[in-house]
């Protein structure tokens, strides 16, 4: 039960610097794709963004009140 060396082959993928059309599919109709995603999932978007925006605005308001408290 000796150890036998195993030959591994490495596969390297690279993009050609001369081929510029690799990622055009990502940017094609981008505003339409964003509108479609938001209109399909608007309730999830609101439920995600409302707590984040609320927490951020509360923290900003608290920080401003704390700064103003030491003014007088």
TrEMBL record:
Belongs to the UQCRQ/QCR8 family. One of its GO terms (biological process) is mitochondrial electron transport, ubiquinol to cytochrome c. Keywords: Electron transport, Membrane, Mitochondrion, Mitochondrion inner membrane, Respiratory chain, Transmembrane, Transmembrane helix, Transport. GO terms for cellular component: mitochondrial inner membrane; respiratory chain complex III. This is Cytochrome b-c1 complex subunit 8. It is a single-pass membrane protein. Pfam families: Cyt_b-c1_8 (PF10890). It comes from Eutrema salsugineum. It is found in: Mitochondrion inner membrane.
